[in-house]
Design a protein that fits this description.
The chain is of the alpha/beta class. Helix content is 42%, strand content 17%. It has a 7-stranded mixed beta sheet, with helices on both faces. A hairpin with a 2-residue loop joins strand 5 and strand 6. The longest helix has 21 residues.
Amino acid sequence: MAEEDDSLREWHRLFGLFLADYFTDSPFDVEVESDLSVQQQFLDVIIIRRRKGNNIPPMPDGLEVLADHNLITFKSHHEALDGWAMKELVGHSVAYRKLVSRKLPKLIPEERIRLFAISARFPNKLSKEVPWQTVRDGVYDCDWGTDRVRVVVTSQLATTEPNAIMHLFSPSRELLAFGQATYRQRSEKSSHLLKKVLKNWRNEGLAMPFTMQDFMREYMKEELAELPKEKFADVLADVPIEQRLAGVSKEQLEKYLAELDAKGAKSKSKPKRKKK
């Protein structure tokens, strides 16, 4: 059990450290595994606005609503985002609000604190137990009592550059490859973090492509499979003929041309109907 707990904690730490890298040189600081009580109870990640300024990196889907204090619980592909996790997050928010207000005459306004739950897998059970609203693909709002929690499911997010950091924690070979190829490093430490994440995935037996070319090949297969046949001509219109025929052997081409000739001859041989 202890080894399993250590493994899960490592995924949480890596997620927090990647967020710390992502917010490098921004007005926000990222704290990982913050202790919010006398008896140690750790919150995975806190993103805090420490400085004024607008040099904020493009936000991954779901995180564009950051407040001054942003409390995040993270669930890896091994864990479920469930009711207990939500109770813990809301409990942490109470302790945190008291902690940051201890030198103030009164508690900071609740609207300066936002709650986030980031999960590698969609929480099927939780989504049926509480008020649940879809914001966009992979982004949801969950009402837990009087609190609203923004839920981000990494495996459902679009393949855009700001989402690359999230896809490093998606339990999908293709999405992981996209994240690895697309994530733009912002500090020297991020290359070591990336190696550690990929090593963890390999240790768990996830085979994956390591190049953008591999990802694009898989991505285009999926896109073309959903493309209506009448749109293929539009897609190929600007592609040089030699590229369209790349990988087609002379024998395959000759066979195809022969089939076209046979179809044409058969069509011409059919007697035309006389007009009445």
